[in-house]
Backbone:
């Protein structure tokens, strides 16, 4: 399928009946060189980079529903590399560089918008933390500007700058951050993988993982058994359940993270804004809707819905930051299943089962990690060695304690991720 302005005009005038499928709908083969369990952003990007970077084309992506039907199609679309921890900072720096060339690489419009991310701070202590984070970002070659209150007011004039409880002291400005169209990212990677010969198999739920003498042999699915010498588990909030099929217990809890979209409004926020004291983040979509979210629901669940107390908290924080939206209507909300690790950082590694790999524990950082996650996972599956950008995110850190939280603050810390 090729795109052009003339094609779009023609289809718009003829009921959009002439569009061809963007990828094939193949039946599963009896055997593949590699299988990716999970057809979300991370699974699709893994397949794409296995084919593009490593020449592996006899690959299947198995998705129990439809491609892009999980978290990658339901999130707040934020892309950023403003992480402050050793290991995370390098990884997300790598991811942002991939984002910046993604549309050219995929030849697909992912609607990447580098509108900038501003993390507000409301106290001297938060300013110090922002400065520390900015220094780490700059050391990775990324951009970071520490704004005073006057500069924040110039960039974001509509905010409530002089709130009695949470006056805005300034902000950490990350110009290269922004947003991308979530479902378009999934479609772009799916199309790119399919063009390179990858089989994208929908409505194919994995029901078991075949292991003989500690070596993976393939998987059982609702569409029959499929053999493979390499299997990657890339299923986000379902990671614990899929790993249990292989007899593994992952250090992961699944929690619900809610997000909301308002009705379309006139432009009022040009950037992605995070409200540090209220744990709320907001941006305005191309359609004018405010896209915002907050903290986890703080109880383990696999339900893709949330509870009202968290919704109330997010609305309160939004009103504190932008009071004039008080009469705006919320059009929809949803809950994504977050795979949360104890230290707030992800896992890309081999498992104790030979040939079985895991990509999980993305916590709040899943969407912005999509390109680098697939890039690093593909490198691991193809070469057997971790990619440099994901070197610190091994599974065994939860067994040995190396790289976890410690008194020297040199490990991953859940409260600073």
Residues:
């Amino acid at each position: 399928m090729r795109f052009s302005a003339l094609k779009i005009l023609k289809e718009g005038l003829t009921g959009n009946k002439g569009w061809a499928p963007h990828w094939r709908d193949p039946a599963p083969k009896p055997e593949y060189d590699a299988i990716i369990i999970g057809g979300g952003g991370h699974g699709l990007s893994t397949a794409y980079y296995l084919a593009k970077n490593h020449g592996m084309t006899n690959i299947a992506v198995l998705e129990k529903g439809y491609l892009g039907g999980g978290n990658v199609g339901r999130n707040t679309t934020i892309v950023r590399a403003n992480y402050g921890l050793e290991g995370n900072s390098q990884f997300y720096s790598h991811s942002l560089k991939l984002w910046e060339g993604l549309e050219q690489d995929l030849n697909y419009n992912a609607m990447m918008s580098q509108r900038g991310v501003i993390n507000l701070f409301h106290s001297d202590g938060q300013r110090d933390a922002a400065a520390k984070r900015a220094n780490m970002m700059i050391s990775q070659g990324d951009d970071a500007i520490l704004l005073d209150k006057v500069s924040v007011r110039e960039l974001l004039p509509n905010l409530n700058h002089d709130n009695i409880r949470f006056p805005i002291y300034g902000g950490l400005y990350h110009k290269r951050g922004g947003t991308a169209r979530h479902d378009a990212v999934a479609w772009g990677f799916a199309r790119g993988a399919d063009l390179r010969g990858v089989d994208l198999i929908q409505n194919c739920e994995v029901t078991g993982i075949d292991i003989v003498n500690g070596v993976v042999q393939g998987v059982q699915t609702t569409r029959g058994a499929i053999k493979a010498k390499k299997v990657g588990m890339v299923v986000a909030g379902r990671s614990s359940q899929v790993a249990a099929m292989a007899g593994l217990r992952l250090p992961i809890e699944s929690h619900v993270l809610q997000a909301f979209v308002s009705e379309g409004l006139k432009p009022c926020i040009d950037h992605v804004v995070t409200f540090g004291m209220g744990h709320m983040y907001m941006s305005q979509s191309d359609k004018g809707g405010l896209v915002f979210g907050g903290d986890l629901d703080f109880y383990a669940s696999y339900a893709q819905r949330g509870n009202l107390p968290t919704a109330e908290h997010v609305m309160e924080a939004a009103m504190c930051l932008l009071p004039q939206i008080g009469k705006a209507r919320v059009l929809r909300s949803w809950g994504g299943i977050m795979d949360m690790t104890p230290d707030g950082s992800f896992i890309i590694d081999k498992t104790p089962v030979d040939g079985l790999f895991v990509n999980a524990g993305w916590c709040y950082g899943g969407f912005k990690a999509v390109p680098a996650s697939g890039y690093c996972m593909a490198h691991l599956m193809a070469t057997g060695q971790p990619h440099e950008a994901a070197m610190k995110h091994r599974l065994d850190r939860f067994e040995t304690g190396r790289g976890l939280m410690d008194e020297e603050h040199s490990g991953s810390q859940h409260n600073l991720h």
User: Anything to note?
Assistant: The chain has two domains: 5-77+182-249+343-400, 113-177+253-340. The first strand starts at residue 31 and ends at 37. The chain has a mean pLDDT of 93.
